[in-house]
Structures are given as C-alpha cells and as structure tokens.
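Question (not urgent): is this output format expected?
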Amino acid sequence: MDYVEALTWLYGLESRGVRLGLDRMNAALYHVGIPRDALRVLHVAGTNGKGSACAFAESIAREAGIKVGRFSSPHLHRYVERVRIDGAPIGEREAAARLTQLRRTSETTPGFPRVTFFEFTTLLAMEAFIDHGCELVVLEVGLGGRLDSTNTIDTSASIITSIGFDHGQILGNTLEEIAYEKACIARPGVPLICGVDERPARDVISTHAQDVGAELALVGHAFEASEGFLRIGGRALVDVELGLAGAHQYANAACAVTAMLTLEPSLSDETLRRGLANARHPGRQETLSAAPEVVIDGAHNPAGCVAFARSLRAQSRPSGNTVLLFGAMRDKDHAAMLSAFDDVVDARIYAIPDMPRAVDLATLGSIRPGEIAKSVTAGLGKALALAGPRGKVVVCGSLFLVAEVRAQLLGLVQDPPIGM
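Got this back:
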C-alpha cells in the first residue's frame, strides 16, 4: 500500500470505535514480536497538559543529546505527526510500509485480535522507536490510562499532569473515577510524578500509587512551580523561559523536568533551560498572525477553556474586537466551555469541520448568542472581518477546528481527505 491506501485502510478501522482494553494489545504485541520492555519509556497521562509535558520532556532529551521518540495523539495535519524521532515525524513511505506489514500480519496470523485504529498506531510507533534505536520514548496516553493501549508497555517513569472532566461516558462522571483511570498507569517501583494538587483526585492517585508500590512524587512536596520558577527537590531554577505560552505551562514543565531528572539525574541546569525554552507544541496558545492577531488553542474541555481564557485575560486587551471562533464535538460540556470566555470576548462565531461527531452549531448559539458559519473557511473570514486589523481572533473548542484554521492561515499541507 502507498501512504493514501494505507490511511484509507487504517481509517476504515474507525468503524470498530473506541474499545478500551489491554487484551487485544497484549496479544498483538506478542504476534508482531514487540517486547514490552524493549525501550526506556516515560508514560504521560492527564486530562489537560499531557501533550505539553511530552513536548517539554522531548525537548529536554534532545538538548541532552538523547535520541528520543515521541508518540502523541491526535495529529493536527498529517497522520505521521503521531510518531516522531528527534522531533521529526516519520516519513510517509515508512508509515505506509509499516502499516502494510501490520495489516499483512493481522490478516494472516491465526488468532490475531481485531485491533483498533489507535492500537495499530501504537504498534507502528513501538516498532519505529525500536528500529530507530531510540534511547528514550515519551509515550502519551490516548484516553484515560488504565485500559489505554499504551498501558501495555513497561515504563521507567510516569506523569499525571491534571485531572478534570472529559470523556465522562467512558472514564466516569466524578473526578475520583477519572483520577483512578489515570492513576492506573502507576507501576511497582516506578516513579510517578503527579501534578494534581486538588483533592479528592490527588488522594485517589496517592492511594493507588501506594497500593501498587509506585514511587510517588507529588506537586507541592517533591516539586513545585510558579511563573518563572521551578523547584525539583532541593534544586531551583529561576527566571525560567518556556517555549509554550501561558502561565499554566509552568506546572506542566515542572512535571516534565521532575521526570527527566528522575531518568537522567546528571542533566545540567543549562540543558533543562534550553529544553524548556525550545519546546514546541503546535496548536496550543499559538499565535499565527497579526492585524488582526489570531491565537489558536487546543482547549476542548471546560478546564482547558478556563486556562485559555485566564491567559487571554492576562494579556492587554486590543483596541478592536476580540472574537471567539468556536466549535466542538457533541459529547462536550458546551455551557461550561463557552462561559469561560464571557468577560474575554466581544463576539462569537460558531463553525466546525463537517464530521459526524460535531455538535449542532445551533446548540452553541442557544447557550451563548453568536453567528453560525456554514464552514470553517466562512467562519474564519467572518471572525477576521469582525475583529478588524486592531482586534484579535481566538480559536478553540476542538483540535479539528484548530487544525483547519492553522492549515489555512499557514498554507500547510494536510493529509488528503479519506473516504469513510
């Protein structure tokens, strides 16, 4: 299969849906011949902030000269973004070749499980990291933790960045339930760095870590963070600059630094500083243009929107209009997300890519008044016009929306549309 053919086959597996569980992945690892303990792995979970923590850890590793692989999801523009070696996505030919072989193995091996889209992608990533000789893998959880396919891999350290409400129909409707799902990435004797300081979620994580014998490092005790400042044990970094925008990113940076020092205690302050300053995570409080200023953020749940709005409040208000371009999936708490921007924006435009999971935009308009656009292109045009050259456009609610806006404004190549 070529790249497009491989993606067509892979995306066709989405009809199998989100099916959490470890049995299929464990069986697939066995049939493909991928050992669970082949790599040194930093496993990262969290409702929000896990992608940023991964970006900081990856960047620190690169500054230290460590060959690092990174697995993340979802992608913004191209499938190959999910699997990176030293910051660069694997090539399309490599992805196609690996998917072709995985498909062949799955179709010709007796007893091979009905693996999902995400599980096949996890298999591809682990094969690539082994074949490329990665010395460290930063492995981002897809959903939850306990039953996520990444939780079949042996780990050397783990991070839980935050606990909040999201994916309630799968992970639970209380913070305690959600915290337990993520706490289950803890392993006996393996350091678990916990950035959660709110009870009762922190208590759930602490109790589970103690039950399994993980080495727990709690924020506020083993490490702490504030704007410009990090403390890890007895080691302090002041006047710290981050490559990712937003004061909340210092908490994610502290988790990443704590984990990296656990894995590599000899890392110098200078290496840590360079890694934090050079970290990049596209689509997260990223400024794309001026006149008007356009800022996109991957916030797609209430806590993410609150954090984004807090960062916007900390900035000087433009003389023109601040316009929110917003779209979301059906299963989100739209009222909580939209209310976060009540004192931040002057107008709202609603748009979303055409996809089955998207919310009916009229639902958003019934929560907070706004203009409904027929497409993302139309919505972006309306938002830019309403903001004017002295205004600001802020985009959030869905990574699918953020990706389309980013591609349009930066002229980026995206994967071809795949007929489902």
